[in-house]
Task: structure prediction
Amino acid sequence: MQTTEALYTYEIVTKEQPALIEKAAECLARSFIGVDVSGKWVQEPMVGQLNLGYEDFYQFTKEYLASTIEQGYCAVALDTNNHVAGVLAGDTNAPEIIGEDIFEGSFYDMNVILRVLEDVDKRFIEDYKKRNGEEIKDGELLHLFMLGVIAEHDRHEIIQQLGNKLITKASTQGLKAVLGEATNPKSIRVMEKYHHMKKYKDLEGNYIVHKYQDNSKLNRIPANVSDGTYIIIREL
Result:
C-alpha cells in the first residue's frame, strides 16, 4: 500500500504560479461550499447555512490568495496528476477589525461570517494586549485562515502534512504563535491532534467563542454539527 507521502507532494505556492493559485482557490471554494466524501456531504457550517454560491466564494478566495501569496504561507497538496487535493492558506498580517459590511449583491451574507470572525478576533486582540502590554504586529503570528481538502482519501494525512509545512516555516522564521478561527468541532479535533493547537482561553479562563445559537442568521446550525467559532492557538 502506498503511503500518503508517495501519493501527494506538498509545496508552497508563489506569485509566479498564477495557474496554481487559481487551482488552490478552486479547491478551497469547493471544500467550503461542499464536497461529497464517500457519500457524505462535507461543508463549512456557516457557508452551508447561509447558502453562499461557489462563484462568489471562489472570487473571494482568489482575491485573498492574491493579496497574501507573497508572504509564503499557502501550501498545496498535489496528487500524481498534479491536481490540487488540499490547501492550507494563511498570512502574517495583524488581525484587522473592519466593523462594517463590505460584501454586496449575491455575496452579501458573507458579511455575517465576517462579523463572526471579527467578534472573536476583537476579543483575542484585546486579551493579547492585556497579556503582553502591546498590540499585535504584522509578522508576529501565523494566521491560518482557510483549509480545504477535496480528496476522498487520506484527508487527515493531507491536513497533517500541509500544517507541518506551514508551522515549521513559521517556527524557523521566528513567529510567536499559530492562530486560527475554527468554525466546527471537526476542525478543532484535527488541529489539536496533528498540530497541537488548543482552544484559546482569555485571562478570565473563558474560551473566546462566537456561539451560533446567539446569532439570528446562524442559530439554525445544529448544535451537533457545530456550536460556534473558536479561537485556536499554538505557541511556537
Summary: The first helix runs from residue 4 to 7. The chain has a mean pLDDT of 95. DSSP finds seven helices and ten strands in the chain.
